[in-house]
Amino acid sequence: MQLYLPIAEVSVNAFLILGLGGIVGFLSGMFGVGGGFLITPLLFFIGVPPAVAVATGANQVVASSVSGVLAQLRRKGVDFQMGTVLLIGGVFGSVVGVWVFSLMTRLGQVDLFVQLSYVLFLGLIGAMMLQESLRSLLRTRKANAPIRRSHVHSWVHGLPMKMRFRASGLYISVIPPLIVGALVGFLAAIMGVGGGFVMVPAMIYFLGMPTKVVVGTSLFQIIFVTAFTTVMHAMTSQTVDMMLALLLILGGVVGAQIGTRVGTRLKAEQLRILLSLLVLSVSIKIAIGLLIKPDELYSLASGSLP
Amino acid sequence: MIRAALLALMLASPALADESIVSGLSQNRVSITADFVGSEILVYGAVKRDAPAPEGSPLEVIVTVEGPATPLTVRRKERVAGIWINNASVRVDSAPSFFAVATTGPLSHILSDTENLRFNITIERVIRAVGITAEADKAGEFLLALLRVRTQEDRYRVLEGKVELTEDTLFRTDVELPANLIEGEYKVRIFLLRDQKVIAHQERVVGVRKVGLERFIFNLAHQQPLIYGLVSLVLAALAGWGASAAFRLMRN
């Protein structure tokens, strides 16, 4: 069934869009990532203009995150205190990110900058997660393996302004979560993603949060970051396509529910290995695009140069 | 008195074309609805003559359909430090979003270069790019790339031999409009040629507009962007909550 999108001004197959939304929603519910790093390149691929893809992708992530958070809420998987602290850091980070983004736009290399950030951050985080989770998986296989503590005390725990995060069972300074939030907000602004793929590993390895609350808290924070992004895009460039978003959302919310249920059946290590492989493959895909000579060297962009 | 009128007519006649166009379009307006999958315009007409058709050179017809034009930036990737990045660009002042040219025969046979310069008939003459040679070296290749990319996307078409001409008088052609149309005025031009020269031409307009839901969403997005953004969010949140509630009901 073909459908003409009023803002994107292209005709697309409605079932294809529903399917895309479903796949991304499934991953979103399973891993606690917004899926922005998947949906945006997929929309480019089916011919949606990049600006519309970025803005509408953000809108879709809002819906799948709401659906995911509600599912996590019933399993007490959301730490609202931690989510709020991360969000405060996120606002500062995104303000800085928007500034850097506009600087790169003026220099005319914003595409390259975004692609390099994808390769660098996705590659780094994916590799780190894969290595760590493989090691811990091997450790649990050994019968007489030493019992691993849930988190290790480090310099992070010596910082002032301590706060008790009940749902996470942590008593730590608010400074590390603020830094993590700011970093994620910065990446969200320059890469046009929710930042879940940075947030999830940072919460596990840096803040020492239990895996049980990581997914829900990450999604909770992503709702607000992407909601902010959606409204900003709608106001500054009118690139949110409501029709496209609704189709993606319909597929996405169903996918997110299924993903959450599949996710609860998998072991934490398995989940992390799968997520790291996904993140790594997106990174490698973009890296190959930068390294191999493209078939068509020329590209068209509407509008004139600034 | 009659002699004076005849004389006036004779003096006036060189200014009038011997052959002129009477034409029609199957539709003056194309409405883009949610289920829009493209459209087709039938351009038809007849050659009106005051005298018998001249002997010798055959009559040829060219029909062009041209969508709204926009400025464009054409970028070229180059390998810098091992990776392919956009390194040079050229600004094109105006290029149509859609362009089709249908003819009765090969363009190079029926149209001379000077007449093309005069009437701007083919796509190469319609694209306006002033002063691009200063913007990058081999600037001409950027324009060739523009034509190549747009032709691949099926936005630019050359339909040689697709105009049917019956008894040197009646002509017709169908021009398919793609599904990814943008709104605006689409200019339809009809040229009659003999000896590679334009002897008559006519211009008509087809309006392409979004209607119904498409119109409503587009207008809301542009006129009330804040409300539009908030409505998008509310819809997203409701859908997320709805799916969550539905799945809980299904489980119980």
Defining traits:
heterodimer; A: 306 residues; mainly alpha; two-stranded antiparallel sheet; 70% helix; 6% strand; B: 252 residues; alpha+beta; Immunoglobulin-like; 2 domains; 6-stranded mixed sheet; 4-stranded antiparallel sheet; 12 strands; 31% helix
Characterization of this structure:
- The complex is a heterodimer of chains A (306) and B (252).
- Chain A has 306 residues and is mostly helical.
- Chain A has one domain (2-140, 153-291).
- Chain A has ten helices and five strands, in the order ββαααααββαααααβ.
- Chain A has helices at residues 14-31, 36-45, 50-74, 80-107, 110-141, 175-191, 196-206, 211-236, 242-265, 268-291; strands at 2-4, 11-13, 162-165, 170-173, 298-302.
- In chain A, the strands form two sheets. Chain A has a two-stranded antiparallel sheet.
- In chain A, strand 1 and strand 2 (11-13) form a beta hairpin.
- In chain A, helix 1 crosses helix 3, helix 1 (14-31) packs parallel to helix 9 and helix 4 packs across helix 8.
- Chain A is globular.
- Chain B is α+β, with helices and mostly antiparallel strands.
- Chain B folds into two domains: 19-210, Macroglobulin (MG2) domain (Immunoglobulin-like); 211-252.
- Chain B has seven helices and twelve strands.
- A six-stranded mixed sheet of chain B has the order 2-12-11-4-7-8. A four-stranded antiparallel sheet of chain B has the order 1-3-10-9, with no helix packed on it. Chain B has a two-stranded antiparallel sheet with strand order 5-6.
- In chain B, strand 5 and strand 6 form a beta hairpin.
- In chain B, helix 6 (212-223) packs across helix 7 (225-251).
- Chains A and B meet through strand 1, helix 3, helix 8, helix 9 and strand 5 of A and strand 5, strand 6, helix 5, helix 6 and helix 7 of B.
- Strand 5 (298-302) of chain A pairs antiparallel with strand 5 of chain B, so a sheet runs across the interface.
